[in-house]
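Entry 14. Structure prediction run on the chain below.
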Amino acid sequence: MPFSSLGLSQPLLDAIAAQSYAQPYPIQQEAIPAILQGKDILGIAKTGSGKTASFVLPILDLFQRKPVVRNRFVKVLVLVPTRELADQVASVFQAFGAKLPRKIKVMSVYGGVSINPQMMALPGAEIVVATPGRLLDLVTSNAVQLSAVEILVLDEADKMLDLGFADEMNRIIDRLPKNRQTILFSATLGEAIEGINATLLRNPVKIEAVEEAQNLDLIKQVAYRVDPERKGPLLRYLIKKGNMRQVLVFVSSVRTADNLVVKLLKNGIQAAAMHSQKSQGARTDTLTKFKAGKLAVMVATDLISRGIDIQLLPHVINFELPRSPKDYIHRIGRTGRAEAEGEAISLICPEDEHHFRVIQKKMGKRVELIETAELNLLGF
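Output returned:
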């Protein structure tokens, strides 16, 4: 099914062609026509399923038919859980909208940086992509008005709830017009999401885009059994012996991330940490360098992993296992994308083995566990 069959106007089709998009993803085939028709959407979709373009494209198309009004009244509000995802979503709007006849001002706003430049830049922004806390700060400062919002997008709503944004989300929604279109995307469909569906959405079109099995088939998974005191040296051994030039390492805490980076740097491996306690400037710089291949290792926590979208990432390493099988699949799904093969490595200590067996059972795949007791890690 080509994009031309989805009801998009010619300027949008030209913008899609300029971005070298060939065929729409399944979620785009269902969501784009429904959004153009003004319907609410309940989408169950993970990062990498094409969900961002599935709402960006029809929203931009709808704007081509609207008059330009420059004021503090936002027309489209996109709520996201992290700063990185805010920038990523805004960049997709800007990329597709760059050469459209009707120009649209798009802004991303989030905490961790000074609020004053955001306040000064907001006038005239018709589409705002925001994290909940910073948006409320801007509303309180009268820098932005929400009473004219026509479309609300909740992207990765489950993660916003997990991060404790429920109260902020409710305060924002209370300020929005009742007569609006609401688009909700979540990686999972739990009780909380069902509750939002019942209270916010009006006869939504339900779309599920589950592509985990396809992605996992492209990922070579391997695990190494290792004693805790040898885990750091083994990580450095694998990176150096494997000549890994771009590897995303997952850990469970900020402290572990920082300590791991120190050890990697001391052993001549260029690395940086990516977590919530880093400044926005540092996080942006780290992600930019990593995407460009100028940084060999990025060590990240799960809280920051949403919004990290890197095409053709060759390696993911679980230095520590996540708490749930779903998080494990989300982690390793950073590689093996865009039809390219990837490698996912897990370092398993004796106390991790039972949990790793549970992960494999839930995933439906067996992962080879390689012994490392005889491996000479001296010097690593």
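The two ends are 52 Å apart (CA to CA).
Filed with the rest of this week's runs.
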